[in-house]
Amino acid sequence: MAPLVRVLGDPRTDPWQENLTMTATSGAAQSAHPERPGRSDGVCSEFTVFTKIKPGEADALCKDLAMLADAADDEKVHAAVRQIGTLHDARHVIFDNDTRFMFASVFDGSWDTYIDDFAQTVVGDRFDKVFSHSEGFPGVKDPGAKDWFVAHQAPAGVFVSAYPDLTVQQIYKDQRVEEAFEEVLDTPEFRAALENPANADLVATPAFQKLLEEASA
After folding, report:
1. Centroid of chain to Cα 149
2. CA neighbor of 20 nearest in space, from 4, 6, 40, 5
3. Phi and psi for 89 in degrees, rounded to 5?
4. How far apart are CA 96 and CA 106, in angstroms?
5. Which of 4, 104, 140, 159 could pair with 39 in a Cys bridge, judged by C-beta atoms 3.0 to 4.6 Å apart?
């Protein structure tokens, strides 16, 4: 009988006990591998990988992570993240006395598309640099990269999203709409339209009043 507890960082060999199929966003291709690990909440899915750091390379990994943190404000990185358009957040953690490494993120769409998209941007190059300090990592563009990630991925016991129905693209759009609406609210023409008796019926509708309440919250 296989042990119930697996040491973090060891390749996964136990079969999946639950249906952990990714939830694809509208327009995204469904994963061809329903056995891909990770839990979903609405359109959001979690991705958590535990690896073993190569002996003697913890300091080098720390330096690369520091460079990655400095690059967080890099326009190229933000442009790549927007180009990918499915990444909500990401974290890199060294733990267990500098012997193990964790990468965790939340994304939209299919697992396979998520990995493919990273491999095609500047983010993939930085992934290669960071994960190169992990034992056995073949490179993000290697044909065996997905199998390697699956072998080192551990699904969360519980995963909850604060906004399970919103994709990254919808959040971007909501932000753009809010900024545009705020600009309209600040114009004298809008204030005049609100005060115009000809628009009284529209302004008095529950939908319009709710719009104004949300804008002023």
Report:
1. 16
2. 40
3. -160, 165
4. 23
5. 159
Q: How far apart, in whole angstroms, are the C-alpha atoms of residue 170 and residue 154?
A: 28
pLDDT digits (tens, 9 = 90+) for 135-146: 999 999 899 999
Answer for the pair 100, 9: CB distance below 8 angstroms, yes or no.
Answer: yes
Cβ(168)–Cβ(83) under 8 Å?
no
Rounded CA-CA distance 31/116 in Å is 12
Annotate the chain with three-state secondary structure.
CCCCCCCCCCCCCCCCCCCCCCCCCCCCCCCCCCCCCCCEECCEEEEEEEEEECCCCHHHHHHHHHHHHHHHHCHHHHHHHHHHCCEEEEEEEEECCCCEEEEEEEEECCHHHHHHHHHCCHHHHHHHHHHCCECCCCCCCCCCHHHHHHHHECCCCCCCCCCCCCCHHHHHHHHHHHHHHHHHHCCHHHHHHHHCHHHHHHHHCHHHHHHHHHHHC
> Which residue, chain included where needed, has tokens 């600009």?
183
pLDDT in tens, 105-136: 999 999 999 889 888 888 888 889 999 999 99
